[in-house]
């Protein structure tokens, strides 16, 4: 297997498949034949994700449900799959650490000979697995016989898209703002 | 089977992807005892193929080659064999003889793109 030196950004559109090493950090990366990017650590490779700042923050409480809506283009024979929605954290090396996840019911993408825009959605019940008072990130991907390729079968990760509001009454920032004779 | 000829086979791929060159081979057998001039005409999705001509000896076979570019839909193929007939004191003419059809279904490849989160809301 050819080993190459990492000289450009990890853009799958311009890089060949293979192993790459960042000369500055010595970190090893792997890009497969379909452009998926992985990072090597302790004998394993982990899929890397692209992170974007969330376009908005949705406040949720435990027992709420977060609905994530997606769109994608598809051409091919009719295909049955599920949408997996994940809530989690940005972990080391851009890995998405999934804390809460849920699958949509199975659905069938109709056959299409030309790329056709499809939509889907997944509901994730908010449980105490995610802590109140913290922000979390989200991403989604298609599953059931569909491999993950960012931007093709899965989304980029939205950083800090969800804030878990405490269900308990919470007071803070108590100060005297004024005092006067009345 | 016709009276003079038999289109014994139409060889075409079982499936083809859009834009693929589809090669089609049509084999005609001369079932007459003497040599015949045979032309094969064909239509792909309503458009006529070129009309190749061959002299086939009595009892022999000849394979005619055609091709087309696969459109974004299933294709029906139709072929006719014609023979050149000449009777005494009459002008020769092409006589339609045998007919055979085939189909080439479109092979649709799987492609995903532009996957993105469009919104997320509390429900």
Question: If you had to describe this structure to a student in words, what would you say it looks like?
Answer:
The complex is a heterodimer of chains A (182) and B (123). With 182 residues, chain A is mainly beta. Helix content of chain A is 0%, strand content 51%. Chain A contains no helices and 14 strands. Chain A has strands spanning 3-5, 18-21, 28-31, 37-41, 44-47, 51-53, 58-60, 65-76, 79-90, 96-103, 107-109, 112-125, 135-143, 157-164. In chain A, β3 (28-31) and β4 (37-41) form a beta hairpin. The model of chain A is unreliable at 4-14 (pLDDT under 50). Chain B has one domain: Immunoglobulin-like. In chain B, strands 3, 4, 5, 7 and 8 form a five-stranded antiparallel β-sheet that branches. The interface between A and B is medium-sized, with 42 and 20 residues. β8 (65-76) of chain A pairs antiparallel with β9 of chain B.
Outline of this structure?
By secondary structure, chain A is mainly beta.
Helix and strand element order of chain B: EEEEEEEEE
Oligomer: heterodimer
Query: What is the fold named in CATH at topology level of chain B?
Result: Immunoglobulin-like
Given as residue ranges, the uncertain stretches of chain A (5+ residues, pLDDT < 50) are: 4-14
CATH architecture call of the largest domain in chain A: Sandwich
Largest sheet of chain B: 5 strands, antiparallel
Instruction: Specify the overall morphology of chain A.
Output: globular
CATH topology of the largest domain in chain A: Immunoglobulin-like
Work out the helix count of chain B.
Answer: 0
Uncertain segments of chain B are none
Give the name of the CATH superfamily of chain B. Answer: Immunoglobulins
CATH class of chain B equals Mainly Beta
Q: Count of DSSP E strands of chain B?
A: 9
